Q: What sequence folds into this?
């Protein structure tokens, strides 16, 4: 039998792109299983892929009542939890001591291509995140949160913000949770920051390509202060900045290494002398390395 005599199976019809009107998209039913990402004991919907309507409020499974919660508005939800899912913070996340929601900014974009930014008014390089797009995401993030900013701070990570400090981390840790807006491009339309009275916070005098790394820094410093997160609560009391001073030097085994021995006082067992030595070392280090901190500390 020749190849020409072989009967070929019928070809399936070519797939066609299915189009929807806006009304159809809004009213469409979500599939039984929407794509989800699990952060700890919770499952959160983080994408519109496979969901033919604006995303519902993130669904939760096994959320721990009263857990401190971080809500992150970002163009890159896949950046989370990142390092926050590792070590002690990761264990605390898995056990439900704190929770993490990522709110993808892209689905709130405008038009066919879900545009989230536009050119700066008055001209200039780069793009600016639109106020209407950011507002829609912030409104979703606000669902179920207290209006009192003392109980639920809303911040925007920005190099022009107030410097992030240990005192600020303690304030955030004492709240029920917080919302963090991660910027991109040339920043965010000033009007949305004013309208929502958003607190601007900076992690240093430098510029990053986006706010995701800065958000992780702030969350890390904050969550570790929550009860039960650190293995030893005293660790948060004795470290740098907790009392306004830099932390004293630390040592461990072996007793001698490369001709350098652990200071004798630390091996003495005299807790009073050890505490005095550590205090002296903290003060000396702060004077030498951070005169600005020393000035504030000594002026108390």
A:
């Amino acid at each position: 039998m020749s190849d020409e005599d072989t009967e070929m199976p019928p070809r399936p019809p070519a797939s066609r792109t299915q189009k929807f009107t806006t009304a159809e998209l809004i009213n469409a039913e979500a599939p039984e299983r929407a794509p989800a990402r699990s952060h700890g004991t919770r499952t959160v919907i983080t994408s519109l892929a496979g969901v033919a309507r604006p995303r519902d409020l993130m669904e939760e499974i096994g959320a721990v009542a009263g857990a401190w919660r971080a809500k992150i508005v970002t163009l890159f939800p896949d950046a989370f939890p990142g390092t926050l899912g590792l070590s002690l913070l990761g264990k605390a996340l898995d056990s439900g001591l704190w929770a993490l929601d990522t709110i993808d900014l892209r689905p709130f974009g405008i038009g066919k291509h879900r545009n989230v930014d536009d050119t700066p008014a008055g001209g200039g390089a780069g793009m600016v995140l639109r106020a209407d797009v950011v507002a829609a995401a912030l409104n979703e993030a606000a669902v179920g949160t207290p209006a009192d900013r003392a109980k639920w701070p809303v911040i925007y990570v920005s190099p022009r913000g107030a410097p992030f400090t240990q005192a600020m981390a303690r304030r955030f840790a004492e709240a029920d949770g917080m919302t963090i807006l991660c910027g991109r491009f040339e920043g965010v339309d000033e009007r949305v920051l004013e309208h929502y009275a958003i607190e601007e916070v900076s992690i240093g005098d430098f510029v990053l390509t986006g706010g995701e790394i800065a958000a992780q820094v702030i969350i890390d410093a904050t969550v570790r202060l929550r009860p039960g997160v650190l293995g030893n609560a005293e660790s948060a009391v004795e470290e740098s900045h907790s009392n306004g001073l830099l932390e004293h030097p630390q040592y461990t085994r072996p007793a001698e290494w490369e001709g350098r021995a652990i200071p004798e006082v630390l091996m003495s067992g005299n807790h009073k002398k050890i505490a005095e030595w550590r205090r002296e070392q903290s003060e000396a280090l702060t004077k030498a390395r951070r005169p600005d901190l020393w000035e504030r500390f000594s002026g108390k």
In short: DSSP finds ten helices and eleven strands in the chain. Residues 239-298 form a domain with the Trp Operon Repressor; Chain A fold (CATH 1.10.1270.20).
